[in-house]
Design goal:
152 residues; mainly alpha; 8 helices; binds heme C
């Protein structure tokens, strides 16, 4: 009985690879519509967002090897799909939009870094570079706050 159960483990491990997960995509980027182009953030802010947020909040996801191995792949891929839906640095302007006006996005970024809800819990286990210092969190929040409403 025990032996049969042990044999079942690899069978199940292989079988779950066949369960479809959300696709691993990196849609094309229109440079005119990116966060960096539209908001012109200071280089330190841009660098931190790129380093700690872009995997889930842009179309430049660096897909890790475990994004191909179920069941870890399921939450990893879902986080990217959901992350892009909430905030996409590659699609800061929607198609056809010429001016940014969704300022609540900047408020949300400031809040998320200050309350430490972002980067998403657990992301830094495999991405040490995503650990943000207090100074980095403050810098992002301060800039985001000052950028609300557009250039002054
Ligand atoms: C591992 C993936 C991942 C990383 C990395 C990540 N996020 Fe998120 N983020 C998500 C997901 C998933 C959501 C969707 C909402 C949720 O599940 O909390 C989200 C939601 C958000 C939201 C919207 C929150 C709201 O209240 O609607 C903001 C703002 C945000 N993230 C900012 C950031 C910032 C800034 C960084 C980098 C410092 C970052 N995220 C890094 C996955 C991620």
């Amino acid at each position: 009985m025990k032996k049969k159960l042990l044999l079942a483990i690899p069978v199940v491990a292989v079988a779950i690879q066949l369960i479809p997960a959300p696709a691993k995509t990196n849609p094309p980027i229109d440079p005119a519509r990116t966060f960096a182009t539209v908001m012109k953030p200071p280089p330190d802010v841009q660098a931190v967002l790129q380093r700690a947020c872009a995997d889930c909040h842009s179309n430049e996801t660096k897909w890790p090897w475990y994004a191909d191995i179920a069941p870890i792949s399921w939450p990893v891929r879902k986080h990217v799909v959901d992350g892009r839906k909430h905030l996409n640095l590659s699609e800061w302007l929607k198609p056809g939009e010429t001016k940014f006006s969704d300022w609540s996005q900047l408020e949300d970024i400031g809040k998320a870094v200050l309350d430490k809800s972002m980067p998403l819990y657990g992301y830094d286990w495999m991405h040490a570079e995503a650990k943000l210092t207090a100074v980095e969190r403050e810098a992002i929040a301060k800039w985001a706050d000052s950028a609300i409403g557009g250039p002054k």
